[in-house]
Amino acid sequence: MKELIREVITRSIIDHKGNWSDLLANRYFEEPLVNFAGGDDPIFEEFKEIIGPWHKTPLEAYEAVHGEESWRGGTVVSWAMPWSKALRDSNRRCTDRPSVEWTKAYDLCAKVLQKEVRRELLQEMERHGVRGVAPADAEWFRIMDAPDGKTSPWSDRHVAYAAGLGTFGLNSAFLSVKGMAIVLNSVVIDAVLDPNQRTAEHHRADCLHFKTGACGACIRRCPAQAVSTAGHDKTRCMIFGYGPDSVRLAKERGVEGPAGCALCQVGVPCEACIPGNRH
């Protein structure tokens, strides 16, 4: 079942007709990393303390769609879509706003690619008698205000940590074995599969800043000054990457929606790998 899941996710991304840039002569996203977390892992209860009481456990996410007492255990499937080198190169050259191709890649993800991959995976699971839910597509999913900025009832970054895909950087981005130039996704299914183990010592173990007290490359890469040694200012980041000026820029580029940013995820030591020797 795990190999089937990996195959469906990989095929849905690699073969997607939108996952191609004529300008880059390359894909936007390469083959994904796919990991699994136990649906009843206690860490999901911990997220209610770390993120907020509004963050759903897999049980809550599943039963919100399939009804009370429908959960009999299951698995959270988490995957990371690494940016292609060509896409990383295009954004690395930028310092004030993201590249045109990154804006197009972000728009593809936000409107089409992620949803279609989640849908294809859940449809394939149904053909094998497995039910599931894509939290990001559920009626209850929404972006909310929290004391430290925007939040939601399902964090793909925290889910990825639960599944052993990596850790967090100073800029709050997720650092996988393919680096932090990635896009994360997840679904919950009611098949009980062997989970991946978390091997990091703590949730920031792979970030050079927290390893050595130095680095800070993501601070220098942030045009909004939303990253500092104190951490990540989510509100300042959101306004810059998704606010009115970003929407206007995207429209100039032929895209309806924000232009995005992610400049702090390239031109840094952890762009495409984990610095050091943990992996």
Provide the fold topology.
Elements: H1 2-14, E1 33-38, H2 43-50, H3 58-66, E2 75-82, H4 85-92, H5 100-127, E3 132-133, E4 144-146, E5 149-151, H6 156-162, E6 166-168, E7 174-176, E8 182-189, H7 208-212, H8 217-221, E9 227-228, E10 231-232, H9 234-242, H10 244-252
Antiparallel strand pairs: 1-2, 2-8, 3-8, 4-5, 6-7, 9-10
Helix pairs in contact: 1-5, 4-5, 9-10
Largest sheet: 4 strands, antiparallel
Q: Please give the radius of gyration in angstroms.
A: 18 Å
Which blocks of ≥5 consecutive residues have pLDDT under 50?
none
Task: Enumerate how many helices there are, as a single number.
Answer: 10
| Assembly state of the chains shown | single chain
In whole angstroms, the N-to-C terminal distance is 26 Å
- Biggest sheet strand line-up: 1-2-8-3
Domain count, please report it.
1
**What fraction, in percent, of the residue positions are helical?**
25-40%
Question: What is the string of helix and strand elements?
Answer: HEHHEHHEEEHEEEHHEEHH
The proportion of residues in beta strands is 5-15%
Roughly what is the average pLDDT, rounded to an integer? 96
Class inferred from helices and paired strands:
alpha+beta
Protein name: Epoxyqueuosine reductase
How would you characterize this protein structure?
This is Epoxyqueuosine reductase. By secondary structure, this protein is of the alpha+beta class. The chain has one domain (about 1-265). About 35% of the residues lie in helices and about 15% in strands. The protein has helices spanning about 1-15, 45-50, 60-65, 85-90, 100-125, 155-160, 210, 215-220, 235-240, 245-250, and strands at about 35-40, 75-80, 130-135, 145, 150, 165-170, 175, 180-190, 225-230, 230. A 4-stranded antiparallel beta sheet has the order 1-2-8-3, with helices on both faces. The protein has a two-stranded antiparallel ribbon with strand order 4-5. Strands 6-7 form a two-stranded antiparallel ribbon. A hairpin with a 2-residue loop joins β9 and β10. α4 runs antiparallel to α5 and α9 (about 235-240) runs parallel beside α10. The mean pLDDT is about 95.
